[in-house]
Amino acid sequence: MGITVLVVGLIIGGIFFAVGLRRNAAPAATPTPTPSAIATPSLIVTETPTSIPTKAPTPTMTKKPTPTPSNTPVPTPTPTPGVINIETSVTPTTSTLCTQQFTFTAKIYTNGAMTVKYKWLRSDVSSPSEQTLTYAGAGMQTVTTEWTRGPIDSGTSVTGWERIEITSPGSALGNKAEFTLTCP
């Protein structure tokens, strides 16, 4: 397209040059034609502007500096000493006698050295005395108690349970170990 514009420009320039020379030249013997009689080629050049695509600005990402590792040790939180689990069970869980002795066992787990105070709670709301266990470190100790139920009347049954209550350090309740006694 650039060459075409150049060629057309040269042609038009040449025509204007030629017309300019004629005006400045001596009159010729022949009559000069009027400007309306001069045949000039009509040439209209239109150029469509080329749109240059604009590039969208690239967003600049700033990178946060990576922290430099230090040799300072991070302190590990020390858990508060305490009872972390209680597992209570009973044997036998059922009986078909009119009088039965039930044995309750509790496993008490701790996460460190401590003294644990506990007591057994029963479904008949009796209140046994508080007892103490001493732990040299994290671990488990087993405690037991017995409860004799009966005699009950023939054709009847009773249910009951026992569980551990921790009174120090803090407070916690173990699961209920339940039993059923049926007299035939």
Please give a structural write-up.
This protein starts with a helix and ends with a strand. The chain has 184 residues and is mainly β. It has a domain at 83-182: Sandwich (Immunoglobulin-like). The strands form two sheets. Strands 2, 4, 5, 7, 8 and 9 form a six-stranded mixed sheet that branches. The chain contains one helix and nine strands. The longest helix is centred in the N-terminal third of the chain and has 23 residues, at 2-24. The protein has one helix at residues 2-24, and strands at 83-91, 94-95, 100-110, 114-122, 131-135, 139-149, 157-168, 172-173, 177-182. A hairpin with an 8-residue loop joins strand 4 and strand 5 (131-135).
- Rg from Cα: 55 Å
Number of helices: 1
**Helix coverage percent of residues?**
10-25%
The overall strand count is 9
Using the coordinates above, name the CATH class of the domain at 83-182.
Mainly Beta
What is shown here, in short?
The chain has 184 residues and is mainly beta. 12% of the residues lie in helices and 36% in strands.
